[in-house]
Amino acid sequence: MHRRLRLFGAFFLFVASVGMYAEDPPLSEILPELRNQALVMNINARVLEKNQAVVWNESRQRVTISGTPVSLRLVGTNVAVALQFTPFIRNQGESVLVAQVQVWLEVPNEGINYHTSIQTIPLKLDEPIYFLPLGPPRPQDSASIEVVLTMKPYEAETPAAARRGNGR
Fold first, then answer.
1. Which of 17, 96, 104, 112 has the lowest CB atom count within 10 Å?
2. Which among 49, 74, 48, 45 has a CA at the least distance from the CA of 57?
3. Contact assessment for residue 146 and residue 46, using Cβ atoms and an 8 Å cutoff
């Protein structure tokens, strides 16, 4: 498994274009009845070269509620990464983020390699979580993928909030 992931670094430089695709509704489509339970997930995904130079960076904002996953796909010419992040918010006790990842990597003369994993990560609102879908970068790797997530409560515009904003 580690050999396959190490191969990623050697071949990722050939990625001509990387795209990030999210598969959930926009902020405006959340039901008014769920807004007090909703969370905003800020997602920043980037590709780093061996020297830590950022070669690709993209940010998205998604809305979800506890127990509802947010899906994300990162696609390049020789790699595809499917991520699913599911927050579980607890009023009392520890909140967690369940991160599931699937990686398909085309390796010359070997075909396509596949890797999957699932992690449970402690979650605190407004604190960034760094997720490395290919594992921690190693010195011999030439590139890595980093996803930074920050969960915040959804703050819909309410009459009380509007009055506070107008100085009333």
1. 17
2. 45
3. yes
